[in-house]
Amino acid sequence: MFKEFKEFAMKGNLVDMAVAFVMGAAFTKLSGSFIEDLVMPLVGKVAGGMDYSNRFLPLSDKVTATNLAEAKTQGAVLAYGNFVSVGINFVIVAFVMFLVVKSINKAKALAEELAAPAAPPEPTAEEKLLCEIRDLLKQKG
User: Fold this and answer.
1) Cβ(84)–Cβ(52) under 8 Å?
2) pLDDT tens-digit readout, 3-48
3) How far is the C-alpha of 60 from the C-alpha of 78, rounded, in Å?
4) Nearest to residue 80, comparing CAs of 52, 100, 116?
5) Residue 57 to residue 71: CA distance in whole angstroms
C-alpha cells in the first residue's frame, strides 16, 4: 500500500500541481502586498487622501466608530473599502495570468513553428532543365 501511495505521490502531475500551488500562494502574498502597500496608497492620494482600507458604511445606528475595526465591534457594516482593494487585486492578478497564458501560448506556437519541417527549396533553373532532359530521354528510350 505504501508503494502505491509513493507511486501516486511522485507522479508528474501531482508534483507539478504542488509546485503550482506553492507558487500561487507566494504570488498571492506578493500581489496582496503590491495592492495594499503600493497601489491603494496611490489611489487614496488621487482620491484626496482617502484611506480605502478604513472605508465602510454602517448598517446600524449603533455604529459610531470612525475606523473599521471598532465599527465591526459595534454592529454590522459594509466594508466597501476592503472590497475595492480585493477587486483591484483580482484585476491585477487576472491581467498577470492573462499575460502568462498569452506568453506560454506564443512560446508553444513558436516551438511548433520551429519543429515543423522546412519546405524543400525550389529547384533551380538548371535542375528543372535537367529534369526535362531526363524525361525526354525516358520517352525516347
Assistant:
1) yes
2) 887 777 676 677 778 888 898 889 888 888 888 888 878 877 887 7
3) 10
4) 52
5) 9
| Cβ pair 54, 69 in contact under 8 A | no
Other CB atoms within 10 Å distance of the CB of residue 99 = 10
Q: Would you state the pLDDT for residue 12?
A: 63
For residue 85, with 0-12 CB atoms within 10 Å meaning exposed, 13-18 middle and 19 or more buried, which class applies? buried
- Assign 78 to helix, strand or coil: strand
> Considering only CA atoms, which of 9, 96, 83 is closest in space to residue 40?
83
Cell digits of residue 28: 498571492
Residue 36: name the closest of 47, 60, 52, 50 by CA: 52
Residue 36 contacts residue 51 (beta carbons within 8 Å): no
- 80 touches 125 (CB < 8 A): no
Residue ranges of alpha helices (H) inside 10-124 are: 12-33, 40-46, 68-74, 80-115
